[in-house]
Amino acid sequence: MADIVLFDLDGTLTDPWEGITRCVQYGMEAAGYHEPDRRKLTPFIGPPLMDMFMGEYGFTKERAELAVEKYRERFGEKGMYENEIYEGIEDLLKALRDSGRRLGVATSKPEVFAVPILEHFHIDSYFEQIVGSELSGERVRKGDVIREALRRFGVKEGNGAGRTETVWMVGDRKHDVIGAREAGIPCVGVLYGYGGREELSAAGADRLVSTVAELKELLLAL
């Protein structure tokens, strides 16, 4: 049985496209870059913001920091609520909780944003632990977030010898899969999010599901 299930947030529990792309656009404008087509900003959903601004758009560290600062400015005011919960998620969480699973959230999003988003959708009470990154830039890598989640649950990393609990990660991007592997736990990749089959398969996802209904069936069977 999967005793503990850790969920990514963006692209797994909720669809944040509207808010994230608007906030990225806002941050870019402040840093002197104009991108009128928000569809091109979809890859920002999931990865750490600094990585995207610097790695994908060639921003200097200083310029990227300004873009992130402005992103968070708008996100904290309205962007976090320009968001939709995926259909069937609350039913999934209730079924898992009622079956005795312990649930947590492990997201690269700052924890100070993750908690009110889950509260906004009235699903925060399903989670024993909600773990995210720090605004200071600490604990941004997904592997570090997952390790912190395991620490808060009071369990060792990995599902090997000496562990009495079995832990699974659920996410939609390669960062979720890679982070889970770093922490020694398996990962279910969800295809209804933003990574896609090719990305998740290449990263080494242990299972793939196409819908929330399939995810529920799989997790209850693990």
Largest β-sheet summary: 6 strands, parallel
The unreliable regions are: none
Q: Portion of residues in helices? A: 40-55%
Helix and strand string, N-terminal first? EEHHHEHEHEHEHEHEH
Shape: globular
Strand order of the largest sheet: 5-4-1-6-7-8
Instruction: Kindly provide the radius of gyration, computed on alpha-carbon positions and rounded to a whole number of angstroms.
Output: 17 Å
SSE-based structural type = alpha/beta
Average residue-wise pLDDT: 94
Strand content: 15-25%
Number of helices: 9
Distance between the termini: 5 Å
Record field, number of beta strands: 8
Short summary of the structure?
The chain has 222 residues and is an alpha/beta fold.
Q: Could you please describe the fold and organization of this structure?
A:
The chain is of the alpha/beta class and 222 residues long. The mean pLDDT is 94. It has helices at residues 17-30, 49-56, 61-77, 89-98, 111-120, 142-153, 174-182, 196-203, 212-221, and strands spanning 4-7, 14-15, 84-85, 102-110, 129-133, 167-171, 187-190, 207-209. The protein is 44% helix and 15% strand. Strand 4, helix 5 (111-120) and strand 5 form a beta-alpha-beta unit. Helix 4 (89-98) packs parallel to helix 9 (212-221). It is globular, with a radius of gyration of 17 Å. The strands form two sheets. A six-stranded parallel β-sheet has the order 5-4-1-6-7-8, sandwiched between helices. A two-stranded antiparallel sheet has the order 2-3.
